[in-house]
UniProtKB/TrEMBL annotation:
Organism phylogeny: Eukaryota, Metazoa, Chordata, Craniata, Vertebrata
Disulfide bonds, paired cysteine numbers: C86-C97, C91-C107, C109-C144, C115-C137, C126-C163, C169-C279, C287-C303
SUPFAM superfamilies, sorted: EF-hand, EGF/Laminin, Kazal-type serine protease inhibitors
Domain Kazal-like: 108-165
CDD domains (UniProt xref): EFh_SPARC_SPARC, FSL_SPARC
Purpose: Appears to regulate cell growth through interactions with the extracellular matrix and cytokines. Binds calcium and copper, several types of collagen, albumin, thrombospondin, PDGF and cell membranes. There are two calcium binding sites; an acidic domain that binds 5 to 8 Ca(2+) with a low affinity and an EF-hand loop that binds a Ca(2+) ion with a high affinity.
CC terms in the record's Gene Ontology section: basement membrane; extracellular space
Protein's UniProt name: SPARC
Entry-linked Pfam families: FOLN (PF09289), Kazal_2 (PF07648), SPARC_Ca_bdg (PF10591)
Top-rank taxon: Eukaryota
Keyword tags: Basement membrane, Calcium, Copper, Disulfide bond, Extracellular matrix, Glycoprotein, Metal-binding, Secreted, Signal
Homology family: Belongs to the SPARC family.
Protein's UniProt keywords contain S-adenosyl-L-methionine: no
Cell location: Secreted, Extracellular space, Extracellular matrix, Basement membrane
């Protein structure tokens, strides 16, 4: 039980939208003037001549700050030519950018040896192959090197921490799991709401919905509640649980937003939980009722006891 409270505080600080395994990284435009750190003078030897005509002896300075002597557009043209194409090019986890013969950026598998050495055991991760990897960087680099193979396709990050023996989940324990998780989801939302003054962790619409839960005097506060009490509260205050269950689904369903959770999308929730809650894997397996490896909104809601007539796609956004 304590685990859930601990976990609540770990997650409440972040929004639950931690980056996941195969998430396509959004391309950020590096605007001229935006990011001084990324421009290295060494890359621009060839450019010096061109730029000297135009302005200063320091190309990086030119590329960082369009100077008065140079129209912004000219600067852009010069810099586009000589800027390292990789500066603007993001690769998914496990890959790094390299420039090919025609100066085009491309993503190639990272050599695990170039991953930063882990600071401690807590950086280790366990793969679905039940092998411990030194860090998630090592894991994704390895997964990348297996790209295109069946083994690579099946390999996922299972949980945070070194691989360990995870006790089998008994049926009665499995039944308790959604009770606690549902209660926890509600508390995560309430905590986010309390902290949300100016963080904008929740949208206005979401805030309105949580406000109702927050202000409801009958709400069961966060704490160590018996399973009987949790079950009773769900019966009595069923309506308070509908939104938190939908909300969590929306937090996870991001890559892509399609009403289904893949293994990868589920990872931010699963990975930290598995070492502490041995029923996590069984729960999500069981949740995928049609066993197509994706958890649909209907399946998800059903796992948490939300009635079919209360499943509402509009609550997810
Ligand atoms: C070029 O400009 C950058 C940023 O203003 C500065 O950090 C760097 O020292 C300069 N390099 C030279 C060779 O002047
Ligand atoms: C996975 O590895 C751990 C540690 O090496 C071991 O204790 C555990 O029994 C293994 N689990 C399975 C399912 O093989
Ligand atoms: Ca999805
Ligand atoms: Ca399914």
């Amino acid at each position: 039980m304590r685990v859930w409270i601990f976990f609540l505080f770990c997650l409440a600080g972040k929004t639950l939208a931690a980056p996941t395994e195969e998430e396509p990284v959004v391309e950020e435009e590096l605007e001229v003037g935006a990011n001084p750190v990324q421009v290295e003078t060494g890359e621009f030897d060839e450019a010096i001549e061109v730029v000297e005509d135009v302005i200063a002896e320091n190309l990086s300075a030119v590329c960082i700050m369009p100077s008065v002597a140079m129209q912004e557009r000219d600067c852009d043209n010069v810099c586009r030519l000589y800027r390292n194409p990789c500066l603007n090019h993001h690769c998914k986890k496990g890959k790094v950018c390299e420039v090919d013969d025609s100066n085009q950026p491309m993503c190639v598998c990272q050599d695990p040896l170039t991953c930063p050495a882990p600071v401690g055991d807590f950086e280790h991760v366990c793969g679905t192959d039940n092998k411990t990897y030194e860090s998630s960087c090592h894991f994704f680099a390895t997964k990348c090197s297996l790209e295109g193979t069946k083994k690579g396709h099946k390999l996922h990050l299972d949980y945070i921490g070194p691989c360990k023996h995870i006790a089998a989940c008994m049926d009665n324990e499995l039944n308790e799991f959604p009770l606690r998780m549902r209660d926890w989801l509600k508390n995560v939302l309430v905590t986010l709401y309390e902290r949300d003054e100016d963080n904008n962790l929740l949208t206005e619409k979401q805030k309105l919905r949580v406000k109702k839960i927050y202000e409801n005097e009958k709400r069961l506060g966060a704490g160590d509640h018996s399973l009987d009490l949790l079950a009773l509260d769900f019966e009595k205050n069923y309506n308070m649980y509908i939104f938190p269950v939908h909300w969590q689904f929306g937090q996870l369903d991001q890559h892509p937003v399609d009403g289904f959770l893949s293994h990868t999308e589920l990872a931010p929730l699963r990975a930290p939980l598995i070492p502490m809650e041995h029923c996590t894997t069984s729960f999500f397996e069981q949740c995928d009722a049609d066993q197509d490896k994706y958890i649909a909104l209907e399946e998800w809601a059903n796992c948490f006891g939300i009635k079919e007539q209360d499943i509402d796609k509009d609550l997810v956004i």
